[in-house]
């Protein structure tokens, strides 16, 4: 039972997902009117309760200092995995709120919410897995659910997104598995602890560990959406249901960096190869920031623009990972910066996608040109989207400014000044396409005088996200302390 308690937040999500499917199977026996009531109220309501229950369970673990390893040390509940458990539970709640009106009338809502909950459980397992087999199983659990979610609408664009995501995901899984097999062959162990001992002592096998690092970076780079493994992002972001796009941009990306930190810092951070993978991630960081920002400059679709923005933001994430091993040991500062960046990015990007859902559903378009004059049609939505875009740029007093300041400082402290300078330059580039949208919303003439009003649930989700990014921008210290405590789990 102690093991079960440690993975309680994940088990609750999976149990509620199963309950959704069971209730859906019997809902048709209740009659047409009650069946429709189930889809309108019962399905999202039960999914929301699952997300809230998982969040409360994770918070209870944090409040009672419940820590420990489970299932023969293949999973660990520490401050690091708890940080991400709280983050992913919050993301689930937001995605459910986004989806209620988006899916209204859809006959497959139970399957949709069950897939979201099961995928989130996989994300939580990824953050705490300490064994290669457990990591791979968790990775496949979340990936398969996300492949289906990307193609959920079943129209041409959504089907294309699902197939592209599936095919490229299969290649990424193969690369990940090859890297894991090589690590097992070199260390004789699938546990990260055993791999760390082998990596620290095997100077004569350095080339093998470097090759394994490259294969793992390639496989996990798909989840992180970093260059050159980002080719799926624009098409999948554009074709997938918008709530799913928001989920992928925050949950999937954060989990990719969580498992990368677990593997590279805990498993490969003690040996002579640490500077090698740190340099690799530093180079990939610059490539991701530059390509994402430059290509975003010419985008006319808001979801594709946010897709390329997501690639650029992944480059900023990588700065924290590169700072961990470069120069002097920077575990607490580098990983702390990465974790705080993940929290601020979650509020910012979820808020942006909430605004996109509210506006695009009303105007029936994702074209940036149709956002012209939006400040006159919906002043509050335009203000909320402006604050999210300002935070993505990294301008005070938003969370994005503090997050970039924190992560650039980690790079400077790790003697990666050139990487911090590259990040600042790319932030300046990104200001052009982010603030271009803001300028259009406030200066241009609206294409229609019809007002745009969000639904109550979307309004609540948007307000919560915007409040979060402002609070983190003005008073970030509690989350910074939590991020640094989580980073110390690797010390």
Describe the structure.
This protein has a domain at 273-491. The chain has helices at 2-6, 8-27, 32-63, 79-102, 109-128, 132-150, 156-187, 192-201, 206-224, 233-239, 242-267, 274-296, 302-325, 331-363, 374-377, 379-393, 399-413, 417-443, 456-474, 477-487; strands at residues 68-70, 75-77. Helices cover 78% and strands 1% of the residues. It starts with a helix and ends with a helix. A two-stranded antiparallel sheet has the order 1-2. The protein has 20 helices and 2 strands. α7 packs across α8 (192-201) and α9 runs antiparallel to α11. With 491 residues, it is mostly helical.
Topology:
Blueprint: H1 2-6, H2 8-27, H3 32-63, E1 68-70, E2 75-77, H4 79-102, H5 109-128, H6 132-150, H7 156-187, H8 192-201, H9 206-224, H10 233-239, H11 242-267, H12 274-296, H13 302-325, H14 331-363, H15 374-377, H16 379-393, H17 399-413, H18 417-443, H19 456-474, H20 477-487
Antiparallel strand pairs: 1-2
Helix pairs in contact: 2-3, 2-5, 3-4, 3-5, 4-5, 4-11, 4-14, 4-19, 4-20, 5-6, 5-11, 6-7, 6-11, 7-8, 7-9, 7-10, 8-11, 9-11, 9-12, 10-11, 10-13, 11-13, 11-14, 12-13, 12-18, 13-14, 13-17, 13-18, 14-16, 14-17, 14-19, 14-20, 16-18, 16-19, 17-18, 17-19
């Amino acid at each position: 039972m102690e093991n079960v308690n440690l993975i309680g937040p994940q088990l609750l999500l999976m149990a509620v997902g199963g309950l959704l499917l069971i209730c859906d199977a019997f809902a048709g026996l209740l009659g047409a009117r009650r069946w429709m009531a189930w889809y309108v109220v019962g399905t999202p309501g039960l999914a929301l309760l699952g997300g809230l229950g998982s969040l409360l369970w994770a918070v209870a673990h944090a409040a009672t200092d419940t820590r420990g390893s489970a299932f023969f040390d293949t999973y660990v509940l520490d401050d690091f995995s708890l940080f991400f458990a709280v983050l992913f539970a919050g993301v689930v709640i937001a995605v459910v709120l986004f989806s209620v009106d988006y899916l209204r009338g859809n006959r497959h809502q139970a399957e949709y919410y069950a897939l979201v909950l099961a995928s989130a459980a996989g994300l939580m397992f990824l953050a705490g897995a300490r064994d290669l087999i457990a990591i791979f199983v968790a990775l496949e659990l979340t990936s398969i659910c996300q492949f289906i979610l990307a193609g959920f609408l079943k129209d041409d664009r959504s089907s294309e997104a699902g197939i592209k995501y599936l095919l490229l995901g299969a290649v990424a899984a193969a690369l990940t598995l090859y890297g894991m097999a090589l690590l097992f062959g070199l260390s004789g162990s699938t546990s990260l602890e055993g791999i760390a001992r082998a990596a620290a002592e095997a100077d004569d096998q350095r080339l093998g560990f470097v090759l394994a690092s490259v294969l793992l970076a390639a496989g996990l780079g798909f989840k992180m959406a970093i260059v050159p493994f980002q080719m799926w992002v624009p098409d999948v972001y554009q074709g997938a249901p918008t709530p799913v796009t928001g989920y992928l941009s925050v949950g999937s990306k954060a989990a990719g960096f969580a498992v990368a930190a677990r593997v590279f810092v805990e498993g490969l951070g003690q040996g002579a190869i640490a500077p090698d993978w740190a340099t690799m991630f530093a180079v990939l960081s610059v490539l991701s920031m530059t390509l994402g920002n430059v290509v975003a400059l010419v985008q006319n679709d808001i979801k594709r623009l946010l897709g390329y923005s997501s690639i650029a933001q992944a480059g900023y994430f990588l700065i924290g990972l590169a700072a961990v091993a470069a120069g002097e040991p920077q575990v607490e500062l580098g990983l702390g910066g990465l974790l705080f960046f993940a929290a601020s990015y979650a509020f910012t990007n979820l808020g942006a996608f909430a605004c996109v859902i509210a506006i695009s559903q009303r105007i029936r378009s994702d074209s940036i040109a149709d956002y012209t004059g939006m400040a006159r049609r919906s002043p509050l939505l335009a203000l909320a989207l402006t604050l999210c875009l300002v935070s993505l740029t990294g301008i005070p007093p938003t969370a994005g400014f503090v997050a970039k300041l924190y992560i650039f400082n980690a790079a400077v402290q790790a003697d990666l000044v050139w990487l911090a300078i590259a990040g600042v330059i790319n932030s300046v580039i990104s200001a052009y396409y982010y603030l271009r949208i803001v300028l259009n919303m406030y200066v241009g003439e609206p294409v229609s005088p019809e007002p745009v009003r969000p639904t109550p649930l979307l309004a609540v989700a948007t307000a919560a996200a915007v409040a979060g990014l402002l609070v983190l921008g003005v008073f970030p210290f509690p989350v910074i302390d939590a991020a640094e405590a989580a980073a110390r789990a690797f010390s």
